[in-house]
Amino acid sequence: MPMHNLVFDNRFVRELPADPVPGRHVRQVAGACYSRVEPTPVRAPRLLAWSPEVATLLGLAEADVRSPAFAEVFAGNRLLPGMEPYAACYGGHQFGNWAGQLGDGRAITLGEALNARGERWELQLKGAGPTPYSRRADGRAVLRSSLREFLCSEAMHHLGVPTTRALSLVGTGEEVVRDMFYDGRPRPDPGAVVGRVAPSFIRFGNFEIFAARGEEALLATLIDFTIERDFPEIAAEFATAPDPLARRVRWFEEVCRRTALLMAHWMRVGFVHGVMNTDNMSILGLTIDYGPYGWIDNFDPDWTPNTTDADGRRYRFGHQPRIAHWNLWQLANALYPAIGQVEPLERALALYPTVHEAESRRMTAAKLGFDAWRDGDESLVDALHRLLHAGEMDMTIFFRRLADLDPEAPDAGLFAEAFYDEGARTAVAEDLDAWLRRYAARVVEEGVPAALRRRRMNAANPMFVPRNYLAQQAIDAAEGGDLSELETLLDVLRRPYDAQPGRERFAARRPDWARHKAGCSMLSCSS
Ligand code: AMP
Ligand code: MG
Questions:
Q1: What is the pLDDT of residue 185?
Q2: C-beta of 518 in contact with ligand 1 (< 6 A)
Q3: Of 443, 278, 315, nearest to 368 (Cα)?
Q4: Are residues 235 and 284 in the same domain?
Q5: For residue 510, how many C-alpha atoms fall within 13 Å in the half-sphere facing its CB?
Q6: Do 255 and 354 lie in a common domain?
Q7: Using a 6 Å cutoff on CB, does residue 40 contact ligand 1?
Q8: Which of 28, 134, 293 to mutate to test the pocket of ligand 1 (most atoms within 8 A of CB)?
Q9: Above 80 in pLDDT, residue 184?
């Protein structure tokens, strides 16, 4: 029996109240955390890609993954013993406004698998068909966006950024109609389902919905459940001296800390989420819900990949840390009825900028090869950001090359490949020389041995990130039936900090053809 290692212990459905209404029809769901709903079967499931690391986490062998049953289960055509599928009820603030009930409109959790180490991993399908939360949409996902989620989840993990994981990408053999450019000309796209894996997919919005509805008992129940299941270290801290209110405050502080850390990581690697609505904020501080995300090529704090956000640019690269804080404020407002005091919530919120700054400094020092952050580094880093922006330099290439700089003889020629525009290059040439001299002096003064500095920098500055155009090339090939490009790209991204001889093309800056091509520069939410 394939996949016999998957043992389920479904605490979410066991311990939290369910929607009593059966069926998939769209509705408002009151007094419940979820609705029981099965995936809708698809015509021809076919495994397109999988992550060996996530399979191992779950105790699955290659033979399990390659069995026909695997594609059926992870397309939603078949349930394994112990699976109890459901869609979660949540709300959210979208683009700054309360949006009411949202919920898993196309995601369906299959169950909580316990691995041999006793770890709990929630298995969830994305694109598995309609649920009571599908609103006006079809519950499906297209191959292009599913491939992007699959690839980027795993790339993020290997980059050391907290994230939900992806086990599988399964083609459905069905087409999904999408209006990709919102121009009234919908076209059919191949459909797919991503098998997502995380300790929990609970979002800020799961708590917000109960506060908005005045369902305060349910709010408290969900908070205490989350602490006990997903924050065992906090539950343990309070085991001997139970104080439910203090425990909830302590937990919210931890959410603030983790979110601050996550934002520092996103800024470190040049990731732009694109849709930081509160329903897309993980309570565990993980990157969650990969939609129209993007990666910074030429350094530009104002860039957003999301066409839906092109006017306000609320979720632009440089704004992400502030938005996360705003989102935590919304969560604090939602938690208030379960805590009853403003002051401890405000204190927790005040942790956010402190932790974020400390983490950013630690990470930036590592990127620059410094032993530790020093007074004065702030102006050096501000100057660098201005320079990278004005010079339209590639962020990833610049930092990676900086490790090769000889501080005794700094040479701007090292960065030739980081430039996208000759005019911009000429315009910043003098400033770049001046900055490199200043940086080199700082390095010499600190006196970290060259080999150690280089090693440290290469462990902090990836050579390979899932650049928008690389993902698009893998999509174009996969849509034409060729999965080798995705396979190679995924393999490259498993070791993003290692130079991989023969694979230099995956580290190249965005080619000119990709500058304004859909999928390579801008993406819509239509997925
Ligand atoms: P997102 O902005 O992608 O996180 O989605 C916001 C909400 O819309 C969530 O409740 C999703 O489940 C829902 N949603 C997005 N796309 C679809 C779809 N194709 N079918 C059903 N629900 C969807
Ligand atoms: Mg979402």
A1: 85
A2: no
A3: 443
A4: yes
A5: 28
A6: yes
A7: no
A8: 134
A9: yes
Does a structural domain hold residue 294?
yes
User: Which residue's CA is the closest to the ligand 1 atom numbered 7?
Assistant: 102
353 lies in the same domain as 382: no
Instruction: State which of 141, 176, 204 marks the end of a domain.
Output: 204
Q: Is 138 in the pocket of ligand 1 (CB under 6 A)?
A: yes
Cβ of 106 closer than 6 Å to ligand 1, yes or no, is yes
Q: Is the pLDDT of residue 458 over 80?
A: yes
Q: Ligand 1 atom 22: the closest Cα is on which residue? A: 105
Tell me the average pLDDT across 5-18: 97
Q: Could you give the residue ranges of the DSSP H alpha helices within 34-142?
A: 52-57, 62-66, 68-73
pLDDT at position 233: 98
Residues catalogued as catalytic: 279
**Is residue 16 in a domain?**
yes
Please give the structure tokens belonging to residue 491: 């393999």
Query: Is 252 found in the same domain as 388?
Result: no
Q: Which residues pair with 142 in a beta bridge?
A: 191
Q: How far is the CA of 504 from the centre of ligand 1 (A)?
A: 37
**Per-residue pLDDT reduced to its tens digit, 47-80:** 999 999 999 999 999 999 999 999 999 999 999 9
Ligand 1 atom closest to Cα of residue 139: 20
Cα distances from 68 to residues 47, 465, 478, in angstroms, run: 9, 32, 20
| Separation between Cα atoms, residue 191 and residue 159, nearest integer Å | 28
pLDDT per position as a tens digit, 130-144? 999 999 999 999 999
- For position 358, what pLDDT does the model report? 98
Gap between the terminal Cα atoms of the chain: 35
pLDDT of residue 517: 84
Residue-number span of the structural domain to which 501 is assigned: 468-514
pTM for the structure as a whole:
0.98
Identify any residues that bridge with 286 across adjacent strands, giving them in sequence order: none
Q: Which pLDDT belongs to residue 391?
A: 98
* Residue among 94, 106, 306 whose CB has most ligand 1 atoms within 8 A, to mutate: 106
**Residue with CA closest to ligand 1 atom 18:** 139
Instruction: Report which bound ligand comes closest to the CA of 107.
Output: 1
Give the pLDDT confidence score for residue 515 in this predicted structure: 87
Query: For the chain, what is the domain count?
Result: 4
Same domain, 37 and 152: yes
φ/ψ of residue 312, rounded to 5: -80, -25
pLDDT digits (tens, 9 = 90+) for 362-372: 999 999 999 99
250/253 Cα distance (integer angstroms)? 5
